[in-house]
Specification:
Elements (H helix, E strand, L loop, with lengths): L20 H8 L3 H21 L4 E9 L20 H11 L2 H11 L14 H9 L10 H15 L1 E4 L5 E8 L2 H58 L10 H33 L5 H61 L7 E5 L12 H26 L6 H7 L3 E6 L11 H5 L3 H17 L7 E6 L6 H12 L5 E5 L7 H4 L9 H5 L5 H4 L1 E4 L2 E4 L8 H6 L1 H12 L4 E5 L8 H7 L3 E7 L5 H13 L4 E9 L1 H6 L21
Parallel strand pairs: 5-12, 6-10, 6-11, 7-9, 7-10, 11-12
Antiparallel strand pairs: 1-3, 1-4, 2-3, 8-9
Length: about 650
């Protein structure tokens, strides 16, 4: 029963759920010294660059911003600054690093002439652009423009760091001159304090000016209201209507009189009513009573109008009094504020103070050479390592026999890459088998083929590959030569498009061979070449115009049956690459097994899997695959001795020991 090739899993090339650290190390191991060398070179360059960087020395001044400003007098009503919230402190910190403060410090310390802050020399970017683009003439900067540029550079260099849960703020800067750095931070703090004092003084003076102008207006209004009140009193002959019961005294007598008249009027009306019931309309007593009633009514109405007039005067008087009181209160209040403001303007209370002045540093803060070198080394090492693994993930070449198993092909052997001579026959080195490691690898391949006969007799073996250049002809030659040491072997060159066996054996091109034998132009004895007693070869012969038809014909199948009767124990057929033409599908279907040659680290796993699948679909029985031309780096990386290659072990295959 023939052994069928192993079927690949649905996701043939998917990684397992577990991470194999040994596989990771084997992937990285060949590159470890190169990665380390690159990292060391980059670290050395970083050290040289860091050594050429101008050292910068730090300086820090600690400033305390007062939450409540000290005041000589209470004048919160004049200007009231909210100085207890976080917004207040954030505002003050922004003022510390404002452009106005920076301009003052730059002018005070003459930082325009400090090359760290301002230089007329073009920078690296300008020099590079100058090499590419024509230089443009720029007008010279004015002193104001230079000062603005320095102020902007100073703002960028400043670091304002508030101390949490305190009223302190640290003003820091780095400068090539340690004493200059301390001088700058102290100047920033002092300039901020002076600026705040100027602002307070300006606010106080502005308030005093405004209060003075308002006080003049209020004084005029007060005098006008007092004059109106006094004129009203004189006009109405009123002397003292304020305080106590004065307002009641104005109306007390008329009100009593009006009350008495009301009683009299009621009595007169009652008497008139009574007389009108008793006497006629023209009775003298009734007429007298009515006259008396009319007289009382006239007096009552006159008294009522008098009281109403007094009420109107009293209301007007009260209105004038209120105007006087309001104007006097406003005048007195503003007069007091004017005096307070004038006194407070004579005493400038600082809103901040320096807690710790700047000190010249003894050691630079930048550059930190050790950190730069370490970061450069680690980053380069990690990037290079990541590149190795990314390249390994992107590389789809077959590198190990296990990858052949993952595809679904049994590995038959591993053949190392030989250094072939540039001149002469490139196949001669492989045929002579002077390399003991290579010879042992071929013997291991032969052993696996023979042992496979226990499962299924491989009397006819077809050798193919995916693309040209993978070494299928070399494998066919070496396998046939090695099998000939134990059996009678016939090697057939069935690559009728680009034959290589006759060139490898030094046979003349265009001679008699398989094509003539299938066309029945020549006999078997005319086409066969005897290399040794147990090794015969049928070359391809003259290249025919129809290779596929010849190999697909019944004469080729009959030829294979006839060859078996001639006493050959093994027939090895070298076919065309499967990826180029379909000849290998035809030959493989008529063979007992197909040996698939894979160029290590070059042929993609997808191409191998597709070709093996095509062979299976056409009825070919894939005996296994040979991983060919394995480079030294792969030999060092993977344990190929488990698959028949022992070349790494000294004493077993050492050429010197024979």
């Amino acid at each position: 029963m023939n052994r069928q090739p192993e079927q690949a899993a649905p996701d043939t090339f998917a990684a397992g759920d577990e991470i194999d650290l040994r596989d990771l190390w084997e992937t990285f191991s060949p590159w470890k010294w190169r990665v380390l060398l690159v990292a060391l070179l980059v670290a050395a360059v970083a050290y040289v660059v860091a050594s050429n960087i101008t050292p910068l020395y730090p300086a820090t001044t600690t400033l305390m911003v007062e939450a409540q400003q000290a005041k000589a007098l209470k004048i919160d009503q004049v200007y009231d600054l909210e100085s207890t919230g976080s917004e207040y402190y954030e505002t003050q910190f922004a003022i510390v690093r404002s452009r106005e403060i920076a301009r003052r410090v730059a002018a005070q310390l003459d930082l325009v002439n400090d090359e760290f802050f301002y230089s007329e020399k073009p920078g690296l970017k300008a020099r590079v652009l100058g090499w590419v683009l024509p230089a443009e003439s720029k007008p010279a900067r004015s002193d104001a423009e230079k000062l603005d540029a320095v102020a902007g550079r100073l703002q960028e260099a400043l670091r304002i760091e508030p101390v949490r849960k305190t009223q302190l703020v640290k003003i820091s800067i780095e400068h090539p001159d340690p004493r200059k750095a301390a001088l700058i931070t102290d100047a920033i703090a002092n300039t901020y304090i002076e600026n705040q004092m100027e602002v307070q003084l300006q606010i106080t003076r502005s308030a005093a000016t405004w209060l003075g102008s308002r006080l003049t207006d209020l004084k005029s209004k007060l005098e006008q209201s007092e004059g109106e009140l006094q004129g009203f009193l004189e006009k109405n002959n009123l002397v003292n209507l304020q305080g106590g019961q004065g307002s009641q005294g104005v109306q007390a007598v008329p009100a009593e009189e009006l009350k008495e008249l009301n009683k009299q009027l009621s009595a007169a009306r009652g008497e008139t009513t009574e007389l009108s019931r008793r006497y006629g309309e023209q009775h003298p007593k009734l007429l007298e009573a009515r006259d008396k009633q009319r007289a009382i009514e006239l007096e009552y109405n006159a008294k009522l109008r008098e009281i109403q007039e007094i009420s109107r005067k009293e209301a007007r008087m009260r209105q004038l009094q209120r105007n006087v009181e309001v104007n006097r209160y406003l005048y007195d209040t503003f007069l007091q504020r004017v005096n307070e403001t004038a006194e407070s303007g004579k005493w400038e209370a600082p809103s901040a103070r320096i807690v710790d002045a700047g000190v010249a540093a003894t050691a630079p803060a930048k550059p930190r050479k050790s950190l730069i070198v370490m970061v450069a080394f680690l980053l380069t090492f990690m990037l290079a390592t990541a590149s190795v693994f990314v390249a390994a993930l992107l590389d789809r070449g077959v590198k190990t026999p296990q990858q052949l198993r993952d595809i679904g092909v049994a590995p038959l052997g591993v053949l190392p890459l030989l250094k072939l001579p540039r001149d002469g026959n490139p196949y001669q080195a492989t045929l002579e088998l002077h390399d003991r490691a290579f010879d042992e690898a071929v013997k291991s391949l032969r052993t696996n083929i023979i042992l496979d006969d226990v499962v299924a007799r491989r009397g006819v073996l077809a050798v193919t590959s995916t693309v040209p250049g993978e070494g299928k002809t070399t494998v066919a030659l070496c396998l046939a030569r090695s099998l000939a040491e134990l059996e009678t072997v016939l090697l057939i060159d069935a690559d009728l498009r680009k034959p290589s066996v006759q060139r490898a054996l030094g046979l003349p091109p265009g001679g008699k061979g398989l094509a003539q034998l299938l066309a029945r132009v020549n006999s078997f004895d005319d086409c066969v070449v005897k290399l040794a007693d147990n090794l015969h070869v049928i070359p391809a012969g003259a290249i025919p115009p129809n290779p596929s038809e010849l190999l697909s014909s019944a004469r080729f199948a009959q030829l294979l049956e006839d060859l078996k009767t001639r006493g050959y124990d093994r027939i090895v057929i070298d076919t065309a690459p499967l990826g180029a033409v379909s000849d290998a599908l035809v030959v493989g279907a008529q063979s007992d097994g197909v040996v698939y040659v894979v160029h290590a680290d070059r042929t993609s796993r997808e191409a191998v899997a597709d070709s093996v699948h095509r062979l299976g679909e056409r009825g070919s029985r894939v005996a296994g695959a040979v991983l060919n031309q394995v480079g030294e780096d792969l030999l060092q990386r993977h344990q190929y001795h488990y698959y028949g290659y022992y070349g790494r072990y000294e004493g077993y295959t050492d050429n010197a020991k024979g």
